[in-house]
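Q: Entry one of two.
A:
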Amino acid sequence: MAFATTPLTLANLAHLTPRPVKGLFGDNYIPLADMDFTQQFLPEVYEKEVERYGNRTIGGFLRMVGAEMPMASDQVVWSEQGRLHIAYDDVKLASTSTLEITQTTALPSLIGAGMTLVVSQSLAAGPITTFKAFVVSVAATSATVQTVTFKVYGTTTALAPVVVAPAVGLTVGDTDLSLFVYGSEYGKGSSLAGNSLDASFTQFNNQPIILRDKYSVNGSDTAQIGWVEVTTEMGTSGYMWYLKSEHESRLRFEDYLEMSMVESEKVEQVVGTTRGFSDAAGANLQGTQGLFSTLEERGLVYNNSDFGAALGVGLAEFDAILSELDKQGAIEENMMFLDRATSLSIDNMLALQNSYGAGGTSYGVFDNSEDMALNLGFSGFRRGSYDFYKTDWKYLNDSTTRGSIGDIEGVIVPAGTSTVYDQQLGQNISRPFLHVRYRASEADDRRMKSWITGSVGGNYTSDVDEMNVHFLSERTLCTQAANNFVLLKKTTNA
């Protein structure tokens, strides 16, 4: 069954209705073709607007998952811990007693004599082969290649790995092995102390961007009374149309603040030695990295999900995500912000399971209050050791935003906080994995600035007969531990 008529979407509309216009009245509100008639007979005019598109704002995502904190510099830098344990993939079996580890850059070897290894080969469609080895010595073949000489435990030959059926052994020259260090072994009275390893970390950074907008109205129109009583979302009402337009400009700007933190990209273009490009006024613009761009770069991306498939199939897809989360931080509580189709697919997946397949959820992130979670629009379920709180994300459904494209199905965001070192406070503090930093100091707070210029409305900053309402914000997004986030994408239309 399809729509009887084509829905009103961007694809089949010449313009948006209603659309922002410059003027006291837009043609969507009071079209009067016969002014003589209106002068003779008073028409029946409804004094209230119809909320044709409901609550039109799409903001609220960042308020649910993060926080806003001030910053006083052009850049925010944070460090993230590396892996604790030593592991390599794409290892080559150079001979029956040597392995070659190739690194992308010239780094010191983390493996030393005396360490004990688990070496494995897992074929996409075939056996899983493993054996345990003792490291005899490590030598640098080149700046990026290390040769590890080993002996094999549990066998009298140089290499006789334990094989999971079917019984197939390794072949010298194989380059698809992986290994990890599980311990060490030394003889009595030994003086060898293994390798000294420094803690590993990776630094990330982002810089704020400046967003601006304004609303202008001339003095005559501010004194013009309309026929329709306008009411803003903040409760202000009256017959002055500019009140509505000014308020909607503010709402639209607040949406831009969130959309920019989600969609923004860094400028990769380099002119001379300076990264970025110039605007019309000659200012250098470098952009900022938003949520989607960050997750594309260092998050988990799952393409073309089909959670609502037949019994077991959709659940298997979801379990594939859990398996990947296990390899990352394994953060137990996660929030899911989804478009309509994906949300319904998960509902169908859960409906196919007995008791939602997971025995309920604890609602821990909401202080174990189911009522609080439901009041905020979340529903929860548990799978394995993970709790998920699911809600619809209006930004992905609205036909004037991402809903017009449909390529982003949703995001899975870890709940809770991460511990970072704050240089200003000189101590470790907890911050949400996803949070906004805005520019602020004692001299100027640029979280959300608003001011009025002109000669209308009690302000006399110029001789221009108008009122200009200005909006400005300077902010950036910090996405910490992005490897625990999941971006659900649709790359093709079914």
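Q: Entry two of two.
A:
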Amino acid sequence: MKHYRIIIGIWFLCFFILSPLRLLSQYSVYDKEITQDEAISLLDNLYNSMQRYHPNIYEYTSKKDFDKIFNDYLSDLKLNKYYKPDDLCNIFTSFISYTKDSHSSIGMYKRYIKTKNPTVSQTDSLVNVFPFAFNIIDGKMYVAYNFFTDSIITEKSEIVYINEQETSQWIMGKRMTICSELDSHKDAKISRHSQYKLLSNRVNRFGFVPYNENDTLYAEFDCGVHVLDYDKYLSEAYGENDEIVSFTPLNNGKIALVKIQYFYTLETMLPIVNNIIDSISNYDSENLIIDLRESPGGHAEVIGEFIKQITDKPFKIYSEEHFYVKKSMKKSPNEYMRKPWINRDYINRKDVKKLWKDDRDSVFVKISDVIYPDKHTDKFNGNIWVMVGPYTHSAAVEFAATIQDNNIGIIVGEESSAVNCYGNPMDYEFSSDVLNNKYIRYDYFAPHIKLIRPSGELTDAPHGIIPDIEIKANTTLKNDEQLNTLIEIINQTNR
């Protein structure tokens, strides 16, 4: 198995540590290479940590297969005497991807030291990315937004080669560095995050097939777009702003569009949500569209408070909450409860102590409570539409599941990332007793809860929220085809 060598040949930095601002500042990292022996010990520590802390790493990959994969990775690590820390991060992420758990990850932290005369000549080629935004649809890459008006690569063109490599191979390599239950979610992350689109060559060549044509053409770009500019271009392409929740009146206010970029803490979100609900009331909107297509999740605690303001129906956010505590974690209940990731809404100190009664892996199952909205508060009483897509993840998926399973509104768009997934990850360092280089640290993030959707549906194969009305993905970012289609559906419904 040569998984990581493919990945390394494509790109060099992983998303946990990419920081162009630091590369270009007066700070540089002490980037000492890691020896083969250290790399092997790190992988061994990582696998042990996965077995100790993850609720079930063998849910989708059997122990027999996982052990074989581990031995294959060990063999591959013996091929080189030294490894760059960034390369190892990719290898470790590739390894844990076999869990198919979107809440598992590798964190790598570099300690930066001040330098008098920083140079970026050795790194400037690593901070350049594609000169266009793209969407991956059914395993194929299509240009969604071109950053250069004079480029011969037009929107909706299919990119078929990247530096003489077939796009399908490029996508497969990127997928190997992302932990997720579904390939569609991986592809969505690749499409949106610049760290997955770094260019390694000074001059880069793209082979593409123009929209509605058959011949392959080629275009060359000198270093592409600098990553610092790329984020600006991409924000413009996706229409993103600094608002975590935004409100836009459509059709003279008859349709209220609410976009949720991220689910922040209840303290942050609730005042914003209250203001938006007031705005919707002022416009006397008949339809509410909640757009979660670009929301990677966040804090689930705000879900109930939001939904209570748009419905008078009793509802559940989950049917069951499974709280896992592995045997190896049962050193101190009090210490465990002090973890900042422990949500007291899921489990309290009394519940935790129950899990310490025996010396085994344990799970605490809590039947979720029904939430009853306040009958004395004005509610939105129109039609509710929730837009989802493959990038919709975590708390955003839980929000959509709550809407769908409690018959509060209609889900439209494309299948989201996985529902009934694990969540609330904790970090565990696995490098402290291995690395002589104390400027580098590796953490393994493992989830500790599993939330079952309100319907109680359990399936062997992971899947996301299936829309009630499917609307295919946008092929261009300048025109939100999905939103326009939904508006047409709403207008037809109201006739």
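A: Comment on entry two: The longest strand covers residues 140-146. Residues 1-30, 113-125 have pLDDT under 50 and may be disordered.
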